[in-house]
Each structure stands twice: as C-alpha cells, then as structure tokens.
Amino acid sequence: MNISIITVGKLKEKYLKQGIDEYLKRLSAYAKVDIIEVPDEKAPEQLSETDMLIVKNKEGERILNKIGQDVHVIALAIEGNMQTSEELAANLDRLATYGKSKVAFVIGGSLGLSDDVMKRANEKLSFSKMTFPHQLMRLVLVEQVYRAFRINRGEPYHK
C-alpha cells in the first residue's frame, strides 16, 4: 500500500519530527509512506472571512496538485466520521482488498481545508471534536496508521 500524508506547512518542532520519524521507520515494514508538505499561505493574524477563504483556496490548490486521479483521499476534518483504531484498520484493509492501494490523508493548515479539497475527498475522518495543531496531527495520524497495520496483521499493540 502507498500512503501519502499531504499537509500544509513545514514541521519545525524537533520532538514532533523525532516521533514521526520513529513511526515512519516502523511503518516501512508494512507500507510505503510519504509525507508531502505544501507551503502554507502567509497571512496576518486577523483575517476577514474573504481573506480566510483566499488563503484556504490557495493552500487547497497546492494540496490538489499533489493528488493523482487514482488516489483515495481521506480528509482530516472535525466534521468527519470518528472511528476507533480497529475501524480505521478495517477501512485501510478494505481499501487494499478492493484495489485502492494509493491512499492520501490530507491535513489542512491552521484555517482548515478548502471546499475543493473537501469535495475531492472520498471520505472525511475526525480524530476528535477538539481542534488540534496540524503539526501534532501528523504524529497522531502516523501512529494510528502504524497501529492499523499492526491490528490488521494480528500483531500486539498498546491499547
């Protein structure tokens, strides 16, 4: 399975990089996983609704340019469906079984994902009703994908 994690902005925090690198190393036994960073749109702290839309649309274009036609897209969004780790594992297993070997998880920037990215998504996944920093979500997502492969292989994992 080829998994891409498409995300807005560069990861700067060393502790998050170390955690992500550890899970990417572990995941390499199960799947090819790439993290694709697209530049975030520079914007002042205070934005009008129109300016926010412009920023999200520019970031959305950059995201969409990284997604091929044959890719199954899972957008991370608060309004998405919440799943247990076992349900995520079953979903990834189902995708692989039915020939969807290219999967992209999309993590938006600080303002979220554009409408165009949400329309392109085959499904929307929520980790919580809470808002998390998008850099932290990379680590949480990579850990959950690793856990999903362990579950699908019947290997032990921490509950």
**Quaternary state, please?**
single chain
Highest CATH level, the class: Alpha Beta
At the fold tier of CATH, the topology name is Alpha/beta knot
| Major sheet attributes | 5 strands, parallel
CATH superfamily: SPOUT methyltransferase, trefoil knot domain
Backbone shape = globular
Low-confidence stretches: none
CA radius of gyration is: 15 Å
Strand ordering within the main sheet: 2-1-4-3-5
In whole angstroms, how far apart are the ends? 24 Å
Query: How confident overall, as mean pLDDT?
Result: 94
Order of helices and strands: EHEHEHEHEH
User: What is the helical fraction, as a range of percent?
Assistant: 40-55%
The CATH architecture = 3-Layer(aba) Sandwich
| Topology, number of strands | 5
In terms of structural class, how would the helical and strand content be classed?
alpha/beta
Strand coverage percent:
15-25%
Q: What is the domain tally?
A: 1
Number of helices: 5
Task: Annotate the secondary structure layout.
Blueprint: E1 2-8, H1 14-27, E2 32-38, H2 49-64, E3 72-82, H3 85-97, E4 102-107, H4 115-120, E5 123-126, H5 134-152
Q: Any overview of this molecule?
A:
This protein is of the alpha/beta class and 159 residues long. It has one domain: SPOUT methyltransferase, trefoil knot domain (Alpha/beta knot). 43% of the residues lie in helices and 22% in strands. It is built from 5 helices and 5 strands; from the N terminus they run E-H-E-H-E-H-E-H-E-H. It has a 5-stranded parallel β-sheet. Strand 1, helix 1 and strand 2 form a beta-alpha-beta unit. Helix 1 packs parallel to helix 5 and helix 3 packs across helix 5. The chain is globular and about 50 Å long. The two termini are 24 Å apart. The model has no long low-confidence stretch (mean pLDDT 94). It is an enzyme of class 2 (transferase). Keywords: Cytoplasm, Methyltransferase, rRNA processing, S-adenosyl-L-methionine, Transferase. It comes from Bacillus coahuilensis p1.1.43. One of its GO terms (cellular component) is cytoplasm. This is Ribosomal RNA large subunit methyltransferase H.
